[in-house]
Amino acid sequence: MDFKFIALLILIGSFMGMTVAQASCDPETQYEEEGQCCLMCKPGTSMSTKDCKNPRCQSCPDNHYQDKYTTENKCLLQPYCDRNKNFEDPFPKSKTQKSICECKVGFHCSSKDCITCVEHTVCQPGYGAKVIGNKSQDTECEKCPDGTFNNNTSWDAHCRKWTECETGYHVEEKGTHTTDNTCGLPRRGHIIVISIISVMAVITVVILVLLYRGCIKQRTKRYFKPLHPEEKPTCTETTLNMPLTPEENEDDPSHELSSEGFTEKGNQVMQERGKEEIVSRQESQLESQFESQEDSQSMDPFYKPVQACTSAVES
Ligand SMILES: *[C@@H]1O[C@H](CO)[C@@H](O)[C@H](O)[C@H]1NC(C)=O
Ligand SMILES: *[C@@H]1O[C@H](CO)[C@@H](O)[C@H](O)[C@H]1NC(C)=O
Ligand SMILES: *[C@@H]1O[C@H](CO)[C@@H](O)[C@H](O)[C@H]1NC(C)=O
């Protein structure tokens, strides 16, 4: 038992002695040689000449790296990133870190080992990226949910929400899985524009009618004022298109007498008056007025044209 105990103590003691000796050297940056702690070269360099306290280190050449403190006299070659396999070739390459060959944008590793890179899945119109692909993962497409759309054929476009028309505007054409909502002019605006146009149209029509009527009145005045200053309106309408001339009066058989002379006519009138006198004098005042009118008209040289006019109205 005693021997075993002593042996254990010696073992523990020797371990402790070893740890004390090792603790004096930094395992990351130093190495031990002949009981001494010696310096290693920095990352990004290699050791060209060994010297415990003052080693010679040289920088790694291009495309090489050293990522740790080292006693090696050579750097490590960087992995080759093959562009033909759709890898991105980083440049300049680090001398202190191993390059990781990554897939170009739009590509992802074909497998866990990433031997080659393959293109992302492209989502067709009506579909969008549920998960946008990256260097290690493919794009996942989904059919655009209702209320969203995507018109692009791409691996990096999500479905987007339909545009919400601003207040006052209305959805002119509802969106689909591939098209956005289109917003129309505000309805109120439509109404305002339409009402302004119709009010203007009405005003224009009214003005035109007034102008037209004013024109006709002026024309009728021009025709009849010099002929019959006291003309009654009953005649004006029909005589508008038939100016009264002696020739026209001759055409009318009921007034053939007129061309013979006024005295004849006058006699006729007198005869008629004689008849009237026989009829009781208690006729209406209107009649007497009529008589006096007849009297004055019979003296008026332009009386016949008026008769022609009234007869024209009757016929
Ligand atoms: C790729 O995308 C996935 C999920 O979106 C993510 O977990 C992963 O970290 C990404 N990888 C890279 C290299 O960006
Ligand atoms: C489609 O692509 C164009 C340009 O590539 C972009 O401007 C547009 O926003 C995209 N549309 C959608 C719905 O992502
Ligand atoms: C969007 O869709 C229309 C037809 O719906 C097409 O003419 C246009 O080119 C598309 N735009 C894109 C960016 O794909």
UniProtKB/TrEMBL annotation:
CDD domains: TNFRSF5_teleost. The keyword Nucleotide-binding does not apply. GO terms for cellular component: CD40 receptor complex; external side of plasma membrane. Keywords: Disulfide bond, Membrane, Signal, Transmembrane, Transmembrane helix. TNFR-Cys repeats lie at residues 143-183. Disulfide bonds join C144-C159, C165-C183. One of its GO terms (biological process) is immune response-regulating cell surface receptor signaling pathway. Residues 143-183 form the TNFR-Cys domain. Residues 1-21 form the signal peptide. Residues 231-315 are annotated as: Disordered. It comes from the Eukaryota. Residues 281-298 have a biased composition (Low complexity). The keyword Oxidoreductase does not apply. InterPro entries: TNFR/NGFR_Cys_rich_reg (IPR001368), TNFRSF5 (IPR052135), TNFRSF5_N_teleost (IPR034053). The chain crosses the membrane at residues 191-212. This is TNFR-Cys domain-containing protein. It comes from Oreochromis aureus.
